[in-house]
Design goal:
Radius of gyration: 21 Å
Order of helices and strands: HHHHHHHHHHHHHHHH
Strand content: under 5%
Shape: globular
Helix content: over 70%
Structural class: mainly alpha
Largest sheet: none
Oligomer: single chain
Amino acid sequence: MIGNLAYPVVLANLLQAMVGIIDIWMVSRLGTQATAAVGLSRQLIMVVLISIAGLAVGTRTMVAQFTGAKRPDMVSRVAAQSILATFFVSVAISLVGIGLGPSLLRLVGADAAIFALGVPYMQVFFALCIFMIFNFMFNAMLQGAGDMKTPLVIMVLINIIHVFFNYVFIYGVGPFPQMGVTGAALGTMTSRFVGTAIGLGVLFSGRFAVKLRPDRSFLPDWSLMWRILRIGIPVAGQNMVRTLASLGFLWVITSSAPAGFRRQANVAAYTVGIQAEAFSFMPALALSIVATTLVGQAQGAGDSREAERRGWVLGLIGATAMSLVGVILFVFAPQIIAIFNEAGDPLVTEVGIAYLRINAVVEPFLALSIVMRGALDGAGDTKPPLYYTILSQWLIRLPLSYGLVMILNTGISGAWYAMAFSTVIQGVLTTNRFRSNKWKFIRV
């Protein structure tokens, strides 16, 4: 069962990571400044967009538990309320993102060149982000019901369109002008618009795991919406805390060297490292979604013992898979960085290799923090991971990276060591929470 559910999510996530890598590769051909601008802008975009992840987790958990309880009527109601909530939240996110985007770029220390490239990229992204957010939500609904293959098929179509339009808009093909960095954002959102149309067609077709009838009321059901949000808000808070901490971490990186060219190289290397490392995240992220679905369905059916067994099995698989990927990242770090460092900047190569090798060592702990959190999400136990994120990110990673880089002058590698240490702490704490079995007594 786990394999049948996991492999479509792994493939979908790998496809998504591959497209992200292709994006960085296309942009890297424009130079180090373009790479740094996209990397910095994407980090800031996630500060705003990540808040919707809580709603998606709440939806996935509720759909999973009602599916386990064999309540298709409630699955449909949850889907309708999630769509309604997503629309209003998306509009708010667009307004906030467009308004605050330039200020956030200045806040994290973007220089004039990165600012000029990053602002239009962010404005396009936020103006059309409703389509990306709807894609997240449709996937969460289907995955919670145990349908992992339909999101994979949709993702394949989206990614083909994504790569095509990115190429067209970045470099200018036919009647379309060359838009550079801004074209990368427009290509992404064009594909997500198509994905939204497909997702709505799937839900209203009545032929898939989640069915929305045309006569389904979309008037707010505040009680049900609150049940979704009660699960999702801590997850949104956790992701927001993590992403804001990443901004602080970015500030350390952008302030880590007196010379502007070295700061740009550090940001570009961090961008390339994160994108390359995304491959190692994919198995754990997929297994996290599967854990939410399987643990949630078992809890909905009233079988806590089976839910526990599923959580541990998935955690072990995740740690093993990411350990193997970690070995690959460590051994082939120079070759991986070279793929994304199209300009051949030696500083980006040096810093990027150090990033990959230091973080490759702690991949098993990253797997446990991701997969076991997914298991806790399935049970509705979403508050403890929020506390662990605050501890590991704000009380460990940020002070430690600042102290090592800015006070002890260890160089940018000090930030990578702080990042790795905080990952270990979060993995241990999250796994221990699942081991406590306190999640078995939570009712959603």
